[in-house]
UniProtKB/TrEMBL annotation:
Designated name of the protein: Uncharacterized protein
Compositional bias per record (Pro residues), positions renumbered to this chain: 1-11
Source organism of the structure: Leptospira weilii serovar Topaz str. LT2116
Start and end residues of each stretch annotated as Disordered: 1-37
Amino acid sequence: MRTQVEPPPQNRRPDSQDPIVYDEISEPDSQVPGGWGVKMEEDPKFEEIVEAWRSQNHRISKVK
């Protein structure tokens, strides 16, 4: 089966983009954060991530 999809015009598209999986440009020079090419934090605060995930609220008590 084949299909042909015509995307909507630029002004009718959602204001979103796919996340970066791997950015070949180094972090200071890149326009987008994240990706597998970026070195991980030395001491990531997983407790804060878990708290935000469980509360389903992006504002957590430890970060003001």
